[in-house]
Amino acid sequence: MPIRAILTDIEGTTSSISFVKDVLFPYARRALPGFVATRGREPGVRKWLDTVALENGGACQDSVIVEVLQGWIDEDRKHTALKALQGMIWADGYKSADFTSHMYPDAAPALRQWKDQGLRLYVYSSGSVPAQRLLFGHSDAGDLTELFSGWFDTEVGGKREAASYERIVESIGLPAHEILFLSDVIEELDAAREAGLETVLIDRLDDYPTPREGAATNDHPRATSFDQIEV
Ligand SMILES: CSCCC(=O)C(=O)COP(=O)(O)O
Ligand SMILES: [Mg+2]
């Protein structure tokens, strides 16, 4: 069956885990107190801070919310509220050119080639949709946002749940088996496969020095770069 759309993860797939862990997360961690102090009353910010407060037992001071969020960053929690707030904070970093986002050298050329071939491209990441747009809009390879036909984050559901991929399939409007999902995380690929999508495990050696081969791939086709993916 021909593949007509590609759905890609970001961290560990198009971009290195170390960029997210060593650049984006510390930036958000440092900027959080100032961000909450200056923008914490904006309704679009407040609603996420209140969500965090509720999960922490109810009303609490902003300084406590900041500590909770910083703890979640340290744990790499993929919480929708944290991801939404991180996206707003990173906007400042990208706009003031404090950093550009990392793209593996094979990622942008392959995405462009697939687009030229007529495939539709989509993103599904734990990072919020605004954060995804920023990342692809300010990448080492330039602004790649025009390549994509749609964006999905955890508002559609968790990445390890088959129901999330079913919702994405419905939104894309193609049969599930015509969509190829790329990710570095086996549990995400398992969930996508359960929903009927084709899958490829992206096994970047910079991110995963011990190759995941044989049984470790859980029978997902494996590629160490986008060049090896044939569609
Ligand atoms: C898109 S913003 C940076 C990435 C991020 O916050 C994150 O949690 C990445 O998770 P992914 O689902 O892309 O592995
Ligand atoms: Mg990933």
Automatic annotation (TrEMBL):
It is an enzyme of class 3 (hydrolase). Its cofactor is Mg(2+). It comes from Lysobacter gummosus. SUPFAM superfamilies: HAD-like. Keywords: Amino-acid biosynthesis, Hydrolase, Magnesium, Metal-binding, Methionine biosynthesis. One of its GO terms (molecular function) is acireductone synthase activity. Monomer. This is Enolase-phosphatase E1. Its EC number is 3.1.3.77. The gene is mtnC. The lineage of its organism: Bacteria, Pseudomonadati, Pseudomonadota, Gammaproteobacteria, Lysobacterales. Belongs to the HAD-like hydrolase superfamily. MasA/MtnC family.
